[in-house]
């Protein structure tokens, strides 16, 4: 499998940053970095990461089934994750989720037809003190109001 020179450099740094015999610890970061570059976790990627960290493809599959931030289907250019766990739920997270689904016409782990925005309902993004919270790619948004959600989604649609 061919990756960009930048990703190959990240992989090399990861593999040398763990003690001998512990390269399998690089598996999750490698999968995340590769997912960012190629868009999703493919079977070819599973086999490549398994080879590089010295585990079986089945062991990589086990990791994939555990971590919700690893995706088999391509995400939108902008991946919107809305928390509906208890703190966010009590402060409007469920309403934000419903509003986003209605506005975008998509549901959990789906993407808009143009591939610009994908949506995911998540259990917790670690922002309970600033609920309701959501995340767009790696950017957090705290104490989000329905109006702010609308503005955010509109701005993402305009950013082609």
Question: Could you please describe the fold and organization of this structure?
Answer:
This protein is of the alpha+beta class and about 160 residues long. It has two domains: about 5-65, Arc Repressor Mutant, subunit A (Orthogonal Bundle), CATH 1.10.10.1590; about 80-160, Glutaredoxin (3-Layer(aba) Sandwich). It is about 50% helix and about 10% strand. The chain is built from seven helices and five strands. Strands 2-3-1-4-5 form a five-stranded mixed sheet, covered by helices on one side. Helix 1 packs antiparallel against helix 2, helix 3 (about 45-55) crosses helix 4 (about 55-65) and helix 6 packs parallel to helix 7. The radius of gyration is 18 Å and the shape is elongated.
Q: Can you lay out the helices and strands and say which pair or pack?
A:
Elements: H1 5-17, H2 27-38, H3 43-53, H4 57-66, E1 78-83, H5 86-90, H6 93-104, E2 110-111, E3 117-122, E4 134-136, E5 139-141, H7 146-158
Parallel strand pairs: 1-3
Antiparallel strand pairs: 1-4, 2-3, 4-5
The count of domains is: 2
Q: How would a textbook summarize the main sheet?
A: 5 strands, mixed
Structural class: alpha+beta
Going across the major beta sheet, what is the strand order?
Answer: 2-3-1-4-5
Q: What letter string, H or E per element, gives the SSE order?
A: HHHHEHHEEEEH
Q: How widely separated are the two ends?
A: 29 Å
* Relevant CATH superfamily of the largest domain: Glutaredoxin
The shape, in one word, is elongated
Mean pLDDT, nearest integer?
A: 95
The level-1 CATH class of the largest domain? Alpha Beta
Poorly predicted spans: none
Rg result: 18 Å
Strand content: 5-15%
Number of helices: 7
How helix-rich are the residues, as a percent range? Answer: 40-55%
């Amino acid at each position: 499998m061919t990756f960009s020179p930048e990703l190959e450099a990240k992989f090399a740094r990861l593999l040398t940053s763990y003690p001998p015999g512990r390269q399998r610890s690089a598996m999750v970061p490698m999968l995340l970095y590769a997912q960012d570059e190629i868009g999703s976790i493919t079977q070819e990627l599973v086999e490549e990461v398994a080879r590089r960290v010295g585990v079986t493809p089945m062991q990589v599959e086990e990791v994939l089934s555990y971590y919700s931030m690893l995706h088999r289907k391509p995400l939108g250019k902008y991946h919107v994750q809305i928390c509906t766990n208890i703190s966010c739920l009590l402060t409007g997270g469920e309403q934000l989720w419903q509003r986003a689904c209605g506005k975008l016409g998509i549901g959990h782990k789906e993407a808009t037809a143009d591939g610009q925005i994908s949506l995911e309902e998540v259990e917790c993004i670690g922002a309970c003190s600033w609920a309701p919270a959501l995340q767009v790619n790696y950017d957090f948004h705290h104490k989000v109001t329905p109006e702010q959600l609308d503005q955010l989604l509109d701005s993402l649609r305009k950013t082609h």
